[in-house]
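Meet today's protein:

…
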Amino acid sequence: MSTASQPRRASFDAIPVVDIAALAAPETPAARATSDALCRAYEQVGFASITGHGVPRDLIDRCFAASRAFHAASIERKQSIAINAFHRGYMGFATSTIVTSTVARNTKPNLSESLLVMHELAPDDPDLVAGRPLQGPNRWPQWQPDFKPTILAYMEALEVVARRLLDAFTLGMGLPSELLEPLFQRPTVFLRLLHYPPHPADAPDGQFGSAPHTDYGCMTILAQDTSGGLQVRTPDGNWVDALPMPGAFVLNLGDLMPRWSNGRFRSTPHRVINNKTGSDRYSLPFFFDPSMDARIECLPGCAGPDNPPRFPPMRYGDYLMERLDKNYDYRKSGP
């Protein structure tokens, strides 16, 4: 691949749609063509609506039902599994402010509440036993007996999709399809069950359901209901709706992708304002990130004498913890 220059950032007025069914057979010409289509979307938009992912619609629907039932519970019940030091559990309304955003100066908390679930660990997992950062127990709503198996089945299905997309990322760059696999042997996985009440009519400027930001990690695979409200910023500063599509996920890149690709691919600013329908909005963002000890640096072939690496190497876990510590109220309340 050429390292001489970065692609021109054209503006856009819609999110591209890519059918990824061919990625299930990665050695085929169809998979290569799909990888190329994804990389074009990554260069120009940083977002895509993906179809053909293979996740059963019934499983997606059951996850949304579980999320709605959880958020309909009393605040006392939800607070009984309040978020713990391992970033797992219930996060109350308006308790996160994205101060680490590099695209806006955010001073107001997000108008949302959520339940955070991460990769499930066995009780004798060595990282859990050692109390390493983010390696702890999930907090499950015991009053919903079907909740845990439904959510874990969904996360397992989404990880299959994410790993296919990860291979397509490098394949589309002309690199070996499994190049990044060693960095994801113990991936850092988040599922956030988000609830946004209707946006207040009298909300001040600068108040959002989710303030303008880019995602921290590798990739985000989002299921959203029919409410709308997700918007993506174009290179010329306008905001484009990422419209819900039945059965499709919204895929976007996080800040690690520009680091790996030396700026070729985009981590695009986005925001949520739940003011389209006057109803509650529910979404299920799934974040698929590397192992905490993964070293993040420019990939082979992405730099050269006339295009040196733009980002210094870093340890992913250090980078992630800095952002969590700054953005979430519960991490600021200690001594």
